[in-house]
Amino acid sequence: xxxxxxxxxxxxxxxxxxxxxxxxxxxxxxxxxxxxxxxxxxxxxxxxxxxxxxxxxxxxxxxxxxxxxxxxxxxxxxxxxxxxxxxxxxxxxxxxxxxxxxxxxxxxxxxxxxxxxxxxxxxx
Length: 124
What we know:
It is a single chain. The chain has helices at residues 9-17, 45-65, 84-87, 90-103, 108-112; strands spanning 2-7, 30-35. By secondary structure, it is mainly alpha-helical. It has a domain at 85-124. The protein starts with a strand and ends in a 12-residue tail after the last helix.
């Protein structure tokens, strides 16, 4: 299932007045596209996952060619290979890292907690 959802810039404007969000969303109307795929047979898993990845890649390429692709990727709606933290941009990543260092100076969460999106693993 492919679903598109309009997202009003008013949310981002109100959020930015209160300090903004980690990804630093642009204050403009946007459309978010969700892809949900489901299957019944275990043997279809690889095919369905690769088909979903291909669909997302084509949607991103189409948006990029039209100049409307946003770099940010929502954590809750990301794929396993998406580099979420890098999608926030260097400035926002730096701010997140500074906060992380302030409240977790021994890097406990970054080193010992399994899973999640680690600020230290930012690739861009």
